[in-house]
Amino acid sequence: MVKGTFRFLIxxxxxxxxxxxxxxxxxxxxxxxxxxxxxxxxxxxxIDETLIRRTADALVANGMRDAGYVYVNIDDCWQGERDANGxxxxxxxxxxxGIKALADYVHARGLKLGIYSDAGxxxxxxxxxxxxxxxxxxxxxxxxxxxxxxxxWCNTGTGPAQRNPREAYATMRDAIRAxxxxxxxxICEWGENKPWEWAGEIGHLWRTTGDIVNxxxxxxxxxSWTSWGILNILDKQAGLRKYAGPGGWNDPDMMEVGNLPxxxxxxxxxxxxxxxxxxxxxxxxxxxxxPEIAAILTNPRLxxxxxxxxxxxxxAWHRTxxxxxxxxxxxxxxxxxxxxNRSDVQRTHRIDFAGEPLxxxxxxxxxxxxxxxxxxxxxxxxxxxxxxxxxxxxxxDARDTAVFLLTPEG
Length: 410
Ligand code: GLA
Known about the structure:
The chain is α/β, with parallel strands linked by helices. The chain has 12 helices and 22 strands. The chain folds into 2 domains: 2-306, Aldolase class I (TIM Barrel); 315-408, Immunoglobulin-like (Sandwich). It has helices at residues 2-15, 20-27, 40-43, 49-61, 64-67, 99-107, 134-143, 165-179, 230-235, 263-275, 291-297, 300-306, and strands at residues 35-38, 71-73, 79-82, 88-90, 112-118, 148-152, 184-187, 205-207, 219-221, 226-228, 249-251, 280-282, 315-319, 323-329, 335-341, 347-351, 359-360, 365-366, 374-378, 384-387, 392-396, 401-408. The strands form 6 sheets. The protein has an 8-stranded parallel β-sheet with strand order 11-8-7-6-5-2-1-12. Strands 13-14-15-22-19-20 form a 6-stranded antiparallel β-sheet. It is globular, with a radius of gyration of 22 Å. Bound molecules: alpha-D-galactopyranose.
């Protein structure tokens, strides 16, 4: 009897993908913040298989794939109807070759394919949601050889009838594990139920806010919801850094780099997302992107900050309403420093390394400025900028961000 119960529990654990080998397979995904592209920010529902193929080709041609942007993620509006057996099918007009063919196409180019669904009855764009079909949909995605799932939170009910988010996302996690394919699981619940407190066991990244919009500092009302500019989203990350680390990341939303009006704003947005250890999911038109934008996204020294193996999220070291100095401890006792100019005029700032301890108490990281010298490098250009403990004088244009690396010498 006891033995029978035990066997049943083991079988159940296997069915739910809770066996150690399976859990390990998922734990190994997203050890550093995922990098890729997603269709939503620039294209919304205007997507089809030609766009996805062209974007994949462009990611290869412009060097983004080799810089690390490997996920090609289809957002909402790819879906058609369910078939007679309940299996989701793509919109046959927009994706006539099917999702498996698209997966083959991107895999052949050294990329991975992402897809989108929703924990409710319908997606935000009104297509079929996965509620009640979780295991069937995860199986379908695995059969199509999908590598990444963004899972949204629209139409999940209201008030006491709303789905329990933890339960809803855990169900899809279990469905993905049961389907057996390692799929990065992106929780898109907009930060409404403090996902940072529970999502680490469920997914690899979790949205911390409502939707981003391509403006520097704004709130855009849409009736029942609001979208937020770059600085607004940045400010909403306060207090969350302790929840992020290898395998599980705070997600301040997909990037608007390339969609902001000035180069300075695009640079700042990218720099701050790297300091935040945020997923780097580009959201612009990759096919006709300007070379200056590609240069920002592929800057190897900034990407290296993003992908640092310690996976420690940065913090605001000093802050005034106009200017913020951020710090992020990196592997091998290196530090990244970013000086963000939030204002509309050029500003100059002196960083006095000798006068102010550079320390991250939460992670027990302390720069040994008094004991050793650190070489300072401008990360945008790769040029040397002196050494500590000398102070560093930084001039930053309006809405721009300077980024430096401190590397211990000797
Ligand atoms: C929500 C998400 C967005 C996008 C849209 C698609 O608003 O937060 O990122 O996926 O739905 O409809």
